[in-house]
Amino acid sequence: MSDDVLDVARRLARALDEEDEVAARAVLADDCAYETGAEALRGPEAILASYREAAASAVERFDAVRYESRVERAGPSAAVITYTDHLRLGDRRHSYRCRQHVVVGASGTVTSIRHEDIPGETERLHAFERG
C-alpha cells in the first residue's frame, strides 16, 4: 500500500507543480479535507480554488515563478510533500518552502491535506519581497 500512497502523493505534487487542475482533481477524494492553517476546506472544488488563488497571487507578486516538489513517506497511508516555489523579482531570486501532509484512503485518492509552514520561511519570503 505504501508504494501506492507515494504514487498518489507524487501525482498530486506533480499536478500542482504543473498547475494541472484536471490531474489534481483526479487524485482528490470527493470529500477531501484541506486544513490550510487559516481555514478548513472540503471537496476538490474548494481545494483547487485555493491552489488557483495562491498561484494567481504569485503571478501578480513576482516576475517569474517555478514550482517543484519532493515527496516522502510518512506512514502506511501518509506522505509529506515539500513544495519549493522558485521566485524572481528583477534580478533577485528566492526559494520559498512549505509542507503538506497528505493521507491516501483505501480508494487510492487523497482524503486529507494539512498545510505546514516551515519556521522562518514566511519571514524570509516577506523580507525578499521588501527587497
Sum up the structure in keywords.
six-stranded mixed beta sheet; single chain; 39% helix; alpha+beta; 131 residues; Nuclear Transport Factor 2, Chain: A; 6 strands; 4 helices
The backbone outline, from C-alpha atoms, is: globular
Strand residue percentage: 35-45%
Largest sheet features: 6 strands, mixed
- Rg, alpha carbons: 15 Å
Number of strands: 6
> Which CATH top level class fits?
Alpha Beta
Along the chain, the helix and strand elements come as: HHEEHEEEEH
Query: What class, by secondary structure content?
Result: alpha+beta
Helix count equals 4
Helix-residue proportion: 25-40%
For the record, give the distance between the C-alpha atoms at the N and C termini, rounded to a whole number.
46 Å
Quote the average pLDDT.
96
Identify the strand order in the major beta sheet. 2-1-6-5-4-3
Task: Name the quaternary structure.
Answer: single chain
What is the annotated CATH architecture?
Roll
Poorly predicted residue ranges: none
Determine the CATH topology. Nuclear Transport Factor 2, Chain: A
Number of domains: 1
